[in-house]
Design goal:
Layout lengths: L4 H17 L2 H43 L2 E3 L7 H4 L12 E3 H4 L8 H27 L8 H8 L10 H16 L7 H15 L4 H4 L2 H20 L2 H12 L5 H21 L23 H31 L6 H16 L3 H4 L2 H9 L19 H21 L9 H25 L18 H17 L3 H11 L5 H18 L4 H9 L16 H4 L1 E2 L6 E2 L3 E2 H10 L4 E5 L7 E6 H10 L8 E3 L14 E2 L10 E3 L4 H11 L3 E6 L2 E7 H10 L3 H12 L13
Parallel strand pairs: 4-6, 8-9, 10-11
Antiparallel strand pairs: 1-2, 3-12, 5-8, 6-7, 11-12
Bound molecules: adenosine-5'-triphosphate.
Adenosine-5'-triphosphate binds next to β6, β12 and α27.
InterPro entries: CBS_dom_sf, Cl-channel_core, ClC
Protein name: Chloride channel protein
Keywords: Chloride, Ion transport, Membrane, Transmembrane, Transmembrane helix, Transport
Length: about 700
Amino acid sequence: MRTDWIHEYTIEQLRLRILRGGGGITTYFRVLADASQAWVVLILSGLAVGFIAAAIDIAGNWLADVKTGVCTTSFYLNHSFCCWGLQSTEQCKDWVTWGHLLHVGPAGGVYVVQYLIFILFSVTFALSACFLVLQYAPYARQSGIPEIKTVLGGFVIRRFMGGWTLLIKSLGLCLSVASGLWLGKEGPLVHVACSCANILMKPFHSISQNEARKREILSAAAAAGISVAFGSPIGGVLFSLEQVSYYFPDKTMWQSFVCAMVAAVTLQFMNPFRTEKLVMYQVIFTRGWHDFELIPFCVLGIMGGLYGGLFIKVNIFIASLRRKTWVKSFPVLEVFVVALASALINYPNVFMRVQVSELVANLFQECSATNDDILDICQDGKTAGPVSLLILASVLGMILASFTFGLQIPAGILLPSMGIGALYGRAMGMVVQVWQRNNPTAWMLRSCEPDVQCITPGVYAIVGAASAVGGVTRMTVSIVVIMFELTGALTYVLPIMVAVLISKWVGDAFDRKGIYEAWINFQEYPFLDNREEPVPDLLVSQVMTRLEDTVMIEAIGHTIASLDDLLHTQPYKGFPVVADARDALLLGYISRTELRYAIDKARNLPRTTECHFGGSSLIGAVSENSLDMRPWMDHTPMTLPARSSLMLATSLFQDLGLRYLLFQYHGQLQGLMTKKDAWFILNSVKDEKRFVHATRDRFAGDVNSTNVISSS
Ligand SMILES: Nc1ncnc2c1ncn2[C@@H]1O[C@H](COP(=O)(O)OP(=O)(O)OP(=O)(O)O)[C@@H](O)[C@H]1O
């Protein structure tokens, strides 16, 4: 089922007119109470999202640390809380690794025991997440952003944002994040946020029963998801605008802003990391950047675009293999194999053993005496080893992430991409640093002061991370804002912008679709992208459902029984109303839902009661007892001449959010087309063979474009 925005907004306006009709103080308060409903939902959603995100952070971090050891004083504390207040040089006695707890000495192979326990926990967590998803809420799998985009684009996916999905996605996220697989919780948190809003709006019928208003709230909730995921409220609003929302009026911008802010404040108040800060990976750089560094920053942009383009191709290739082969029937086995392989590969490499969030936080840091160097990347004179390990980790990370994104577990792609970009970025930074140290007199380096450190590899990690996310998602403004809200590194906005821009260009050279659009395409969701490639040069008359195939309702001559029969025998979502079938003079359109409602309302009348749909020429032709169906009809449906171009029709679907269009010539109906028809045609023409089928099926009146999205 699709949303007809124009129709929904008309209903809303009618509702408001009735509400404001009375006058007096009671009406004033009624209007006030009605207007505040959306804000109540938004604020409650913000609070809920902040709370859930904090809970996922705490539980996920604890489970992740359990893979290596346990806190002997209080088992429920993670490593950093267990060793709270200790300097990095001091030994933390309360945190004990499993090897020590089991009294395995170095000779007894403590490394092997630790390794095995790490694998055991990783695989168990991943399998538990998979089990929860498959057993209780299949829609809790993956990131959910492609589906949210589709829903906000006007289609309905039932149970996608229900209570079970929310519960399982939250629990599953703790487990999947803790498993150490190459995935992130950031995208899925958008789904969590939308589910919260969807549940909280249920008691408010004026919102939950109006698909257009519902989508405004969901767009705002999506902003809250990113706000808590990255501690980035403004980035969240922009993410919602740039990536997930289809229709984003000023009102939604303001609502998103409020929802994102409430969620961020709640998260800060919950303070899950005990840092008292919203900025998650705060970096303090003591140096600015130099002009010559723009060259490596551009190279990082190119690398980001290459990574993004390649990642999408590989990931979709793996997904189609999964769909075509026996693997499809064994999702648990697949999760087991990927989790086992990830744990086996992750443990020996220090960059991969830590959680991706911790990796990113450390790679962003400047080397200084006050920062812990847990990854061993700040040793002077030791570059070749760490650089090769960094590059190895980024390649392996990319391979593992492309298998992981698509598994039946809650999993996002934003953080792994950030991690991969930070790895190659830091490697590049270290190489440039060595080159600068070895060539201090080079002409290009004249802006570097002698004997003072000139290059900051941490900045390269940030720029690399931004370029990788840009390459994968093809977002621009929101990534830049997220990056500086995430790190507080406002000084580096320009390099980040340059890298993101280049990565988008390079990525677009592969394919204009980002990872989410690629998945929408892969899943064949009926999403009419308003950034889609040019529409084929066709006339609507070539592709519409023609008059001879259209089931119409004549203005007179129907009874309640015949209309009821029509609803039982015809599956269509609506019917054009014409004066008579012969010359098909168009009077309006009645949707299936309205017709059903009108018939149900008249259930006390005899089934033989006549019904009429109006038309001035019919005065006198209908009996007095005839049931007037005019209030349920749309008297001014959107129409176009049948000789209009497909491009015009498509842009009306995209920009006005229409569900259907009728085509007429001098007032006579010629045919019709639905939004899903337009989506189907646009997708079919990319493949000429499918197009032949599409048009042939169309004229046979049997278009079944997708079975993924349920119809109502
Ligand atoms: N009254 C009608 N008579 C004949 N064909 C119709 C009529 N209404 C729609 N169609 C055609 O039938 C197909 C299904 O249309 P329908 O209105 O049921 O929904 P949809 O939005 O296109 O798809 P879905 O039902 O899968 O959500 C489309 O190809 C459309 O052009």
